[in-house]
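Weekly sync, protein design subgroup
Attendees: M.S., D.O., the rotation student, P.L. (late)

Item 1: inverse folding check
M.S. brought a backbone from last month's batch and wanted to see whether the design step gives back something sensible before we order anything. D.O. pointed out we never logged the input encoding, so this time it goes straight into the notes. Structure tokens as presented (96 positions):
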């Protein structure tokens, strides 16, 4: 954000590096008036649709060179139930 603020103060267009490759970066890039675009890079093998390579389920992917950040809660990320382990608050308290 500091680099962006410096560029904005100087009237310089700032394009965040790989900002569109994460849900929070998409929101940052679209909310900054001096950022007319954001870089998106997600490696995939030829012929494999980007939607199948997304590291975060529910993350918007570009279509025809454009991307629209999600307006769903949690940046639109879909957390899968099997990602969530039961949290043991007693064990966590013992690490303090």
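Designed sequence read out in the meeting:
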């Amino acid at each position: 954000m500091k680099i962006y603020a410096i560029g904005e103060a100087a009237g310089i267009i700032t394009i965040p590096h790989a900002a569109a490759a994460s849900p929070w970066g998409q929101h940052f890039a679209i909310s900054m008036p001096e950022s007319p675009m954001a870089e998106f890079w997600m490696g995939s093998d030829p012929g494999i649709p980007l939607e199948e390579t997304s590291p975060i389920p529910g993350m918007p992917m570009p279509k025809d060179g454009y991307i629209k950040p999600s307006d769903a809660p949690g940046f639109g990320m879909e957390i899968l139930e099997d990602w969530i382990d039961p949290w043991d608050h007693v064990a966590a308290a013992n690490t303090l």
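Discussion: The mean pLDDT is 84. The chain has one domain: 2-93.
Action: P.L. to compare against the previous round before Friday.
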